[in-house]
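Narrative progress, year one. The postdoctoral researcher (J.K.) led the effort to move from monomer predictions toward full complexes, under supervision of the PI. The following entry was the first complex the group processed end to end, covering 394 residues in total.
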Amino acid sequence: MIFRYPNGKTYQPTEHTKHTKQQSISYSNRGMTLEEDLNETNKFYLENKTAVIHKKPTPVQIVNVDYPRRSAAVIKEAYFKQSSTTDYNGVYRGKYIDFEAKETKNKTSFPLNNFHDHQIEHMESVLDQGGISFVILSAFDDYYFLGAEHLLTFWNRQNDGGRKSITLKELQEFAYTIPLGYQARIDYLKIIDKLYF
Amino acid sequence: MIFRYPNGKTYQPTEHTKHTKQQSISYSNRGMTLEEDLNETNKFYLENKTAVIHKKPTPVQIVNVDYPRRSAAVIKEAYFKQSSTTDYNGVYRGKYIDFEAKETKNKTSFPLNNFHDHQIEHMESVLDQGGISFVILSAFDDYYFLGAEHLLTFWNRQNDGGRKSITLKELQEFAYTIPLGYQARIDYLKIIDKLYF
């Protein structure tokens, strides 16, 4: 079942929600989502003191909370809010790391409607402050690391009436393929090492 | 009404929740909470391109979502989760900024039970990665900036059987009083300028 935000964007359940739903289903051999792979990667980075990078909680507007005596508060009514930032941030070797992760099943191009204005503005602000800003794109059976400065170029082209997506060829030119590992599944810090250190 | 997490800690409603509740009440001359003051400060920093620092959303475990046709998804059952990080982070002049804000009404000391193990571990990890980690304490009619390295000292003293709080005198010795402004209400970047640049 797909949940949608008021703006029509789909809600990606967090790992925790997913576990709740899957408790009656077999855990073996389940497909990992991009978010789960990134959570595993970040957990590995954290445990090995490589970096401290976390996914931010899903922003929720809480309207009504029930507070039964002697037990935990229950949120009875709440709504998904659109985030004003990207989903992931943290610190690596003293540098500020900030990124968003998106996937497409599209075979020929990466649609820009995976992003919204607030996120793009946030990436610009992070670049202005000297932070490392990028997106991880799951597309065409690969993971791509695309610097925010390039995403901004494609975004501006769209705003100027140009195409509403990034082609596979453009990704191959401007993005880096992220090496996959067993523990650091989507080992994006390898790209950061190459580009910034 | 005070909501509590399963561990007994009180839930601090976000600005948004608060607005919802206050819509029928007069907005004039209301007292600002520490969180509201920090949100205003960070908004001012953001708008003036001084820094990009945000409060993370309240972590919520979503259990049940209702998805009415033609309208927004409604979260019908959810629970507050304990965060594994601090509440605020972002980037300032290329550096990673990470902090937690807490207040006490206590007149003589700042109780350490305002923090929990996960937050303290997170602060240690941030320091290890070369990030700027601190706490903003509202206490004794002042705002204090206390570097995480000092908080860790007090925390370890407690774990070694010592006192469970930081005295006013200790704060005066190890913390910095944060200047208050009109727009940057709790102007903590002034302290960071002094200490790190």
